[in-house]
Design brief:
7 helices
Length: 181
């Protein structure tokens, strides 16, 4: 959203409700599956819901792919550095650096949340990695489902308005060109 432009109150309320319901549902689903750090599934949902369905799908795929990177990076850093603060700082440094290099910095927030779980437990067993993957997957899945239910009427109106403006400007240019010729 551009500075200076504010969303309508109704649109903000609908967006807040969608995010709240999605985050709560993700946390509830993770709790039903008895996943550790179930609340983080709600955070993943909150961080994944974007304005369009396609943006959410692209981000979701990137989050899944970079999860592997985050798990390997967490293992490499947290199993060698005992100080929590230093370890997490180094983990975040490399996480952001690599995410920037591959053009997926938006995935860093969720991977940092997952990194805190590895830091807290220093558990890199297959079952714990699966737990963390399920947290990310559940959060993403709920975000995608929630994003299926959105009102695109405002976006459609803006697109039509911009098309009309562009057509009018193009018509003006053609009239000036005809007059010149």
């Amino acid at each position: 959203m551009k500075l200076g432009k504010r969303k309508e109150t109704g649109a903000v309320l609908i967006e807040a409700v969608r995010i709240a319901v999605g985050s709560g549902a993700a946390m509830y689903a993770a709790s039903l599956l008895r996943l550790e750090f179930a609340a983080s599934a709600g955070m993943v949902t909150l961080l994944t819901i974007l304005t369009t369905k396609w943006e959410t799908l692209r981000l979701s795929a990137a989050r899944i792919l970079t999860f592997i990177l985050a798990a390997v990076l967490a293992w490499a850093v947290f199993s060698h550095i005992k100080s929590d603060g230093a370890a997490f700082g180094i983990f975040v440094f490399f996480l952001v650096l690599i995410s920037e290099w591959i053009g997926w910095r938006v995935t860093a927030s969720v991977n940092a949340v997952i990194g805190t779980h590895f830091l807290a437990t220093r558990n890199f067993s297959v079952s714990f990695i699966a737990n963390e993957f399920l947290i990310v997957f559940l959060g993403i899945a709920i975000a995608v489902i929630v994003n299926l239910f959105q009102n695109n009427g405002v976006q459609k109106s803006r697109i039509i308005e911009n098309m009309r403006f562009t057509e009018q400007e193009f018509s003006n240019i053609l009239e000036e060109l005809a007059a010149f010729l």
